[in-house]
């Protein structure tokens, strides 16, 4: 039959042409092409397929995908106790992708990793491969290059606050590390939104930042919080040069989320905290594209734009070279858990922000995982 297609070996396809001729194609194999195997002694791999419906319109590029899962195959077949034999490639199976392992537990097979994927489509599935099982491998991570040059700091806040200062390492090449303050101990390291996070007591705990490379607009700040008492207690999540710029949980003027760079240079987010919001995870993103027009700034909550009232502008104060995570320096301390704090010297698109939220809030639905393959 013309146009009849079978997947069976030996089947035929008849293709008519505009000249009235018919070409016959014999199928000699039913198997789909298999991606090449990464060179070296890697014994296992799995395909990760990113769901295009979870990607913002138009797709994203050079995007850090969160790979977070507990997998018995990663318990049984990862060869190095550090997980350093794990690597990732593009869909061809051989082009290595930069990645950072935030956490690997060799007694459970838990993996938390970030993989820089060059291009992710919103219309077709994007595949990558995860390889493992090479006892002779050197460390395959490429931490710095996992984060594009626009990232000025990436704090996972997963380190031990009671360790040697500076405890909170910056994953970028800028080395903007943070120091735990306010009598933080190892007990302040707790389960986070992504792997582990840091618990702030609302009394004196904060992360002090210093020696930060000066930036100005455009810039962007993003982080996760799990508050304890935001319905009743005002707190600052971040300040970058006390008093401006800062992120206020509920400014007394509007009782709403606020990003401000000056007394008249601010942008509210349409969010007033209620008791039901406590002990829940929230992603906050603040986008500052310019120094003059706060009405064009963006405030996002869980991937959605909640930008609200804006100031007139005129007194913009640029970010400083020091600041704090979890307070306004010496007052208005945050009570709750924070995770994944990032500063970019660029404006990420709304599509990027949506994709980021989808990737981090539900990794198990952002991508699917294929069966384990061997060479």
Structural class call reads mainly beta
Q: How many angstroms separate the termini?
A: 38 Å
Helix content: under 10%
Q: What is the overall pLDDT average?
A: 92
Sheet-strand content, in percent, reads 35-45%
Give the CATH architecture of the largest domain. Sandwich
Counted up, domains total 3
Query: Can you tell me the overall shape?
Result: globular
Quickly count the helices.
4
Q: What oligomeric assembly is this protein in?
A: single chain
CATH topology of the largest domain: Jelly Rolls
Name the poorly predicted regions: 1-11, 27-31
Number of strands: 26
Return the CATH class of the largest domain.
Mainly Beta
Radius of gyration: 24 Å
The profile of the biggest β sheet is: 8 strands, antiparallel
Strand/helix succession: EEEEHEEEEEHEEEEEEEEEEEEEEEEHHE
Characterise the protein shown here.
The chain is mainly beta and 375 residues long. It has 3 domains: 1-32, no CATH class; 44-145, no CATH class; 151-357, Jelly Rolls (Sandwich), CATH 2.60.120. The chain is 7% helix and 37% strand. It has helices at residues 72-76, 143-146, 350-361, 363-366, and strands at 12-16, 22-26, 44-50, 60-70, 87-89, 96-97, 99-105, 110-120, 126-132, 151-155, 178-181, 189-191, 196-201, 206-209, 219-227, 236-239, 246-248, 257-262, 265-269, 282-288, 298-301, 304-305, 307-310, 323-325, 335-344, 367-369. A hairpin with a 2-residue loop joins β18 and β19. Residues 1-11 and 27-31 have low confidence and may be disordered.
